[in-house]
What does this fold into?
Amino acid sequence: MPPRHERVGSSARRAVQVCQSGQRWCRRVMGHVTAEAVLERLWYQGHPLHYLLRPLAWVFDLLTRLRRGAYRYGILRKDRLAAPVIVVGNICVGGVGKTPVVIDLVRRLQADGWKPGVVSRGYGGKARAPTPVSAQSDPALVGDEPVLIASQTRCPVAVAPRRSAAARLLLAQGVNVIVADDGLQHYALDRDIEIVVIDGQRRHGNGQLLPAGPLREKPWRLVDVDLCLVNNGQALDGEFALESQLGPAEHLCTGELRPLAQFSEVRAIAGIGQPEKFFLALEAQGLKLHRHIFSDHHVFVPQDLKLPGAEPILMTQKDAVKCQAFQEPRAWAVHYQAHIPDSAWERLRQRLPTPGSGQTSNRNTNG
It folds into this structure.
């Protein structure tokens, strides 16, 4: 019979596989617009069906605790890099605005003298080996969010299922701090700083774990993180509210920038986690919308933009990276800016060593 630690490790690895399969299943479900409407009622509007799913949520809780414990006690190995690692993530499924936070974080690090690089799993892409990402990369290969980050920051970006492999690719290029996009639950990558982004309107939904609720981890997980940023809502004690706003629209063919005030009636398309947030933000600017909803991470084709009428087509920057090549003359990408408050940034700076010192932070990570 194998030694006890090997049997425990094998069980933990099987738990990881089941847990990850469950998460992939939930993402596939979330990819269908009709299912999104059902989950909206189930997770955020108090539909009683979630009680039937609670036994599955208890199993999910057990598996996630086993997985985290396996990394904490060394049964599963964590990869420690020779540079500080900042993880940006959340404890809920769905879009909460992590990518704009990553972009602003990278810009602040650059301004402070760091040479940051961003790693991501590249959700929605087909890359399986560590793959560098540029503004010209194919989103179908590396995912839409990494391409957007690369185009907005001009910093090195790489994707890989195992983030440490992508990070080592960047460290070889002279990067001296790693930012992991959507990596909170990727415990295989050891980290120095954890940042969690919270949807200020939805918060944690019904407070239940998948599939009974939207949570990947229970809210007690937030006690361990270094910074909680609230997007589109009021910050509670110990949290920081993001400063966010819509910017101008950029024409996908010519690059022309036009203030939203110069638009009136438009076609608005969205293939993101919460399309309603985008639509409401446009309506708050006084625009009259014809709404067209696609599933999150939708793979756009030229026909998707052949909409009736002659109105301009407005979309998010994340969707625009997948539509850029279509040369649709009606298409515009609406800029969105999120800024980490100065007080929050100062807290992060205190946890980072001096740029170029070759040190990592003194955070005691235990998974």
About this structure: Confidence is low (pLDDT under 50) at residues 2-13, 15-20, 22-33. The two ends are 29 Å apart (CA to CA). The chain has ten helices and 14 strands. The first helix runs from residue 4 to 30.
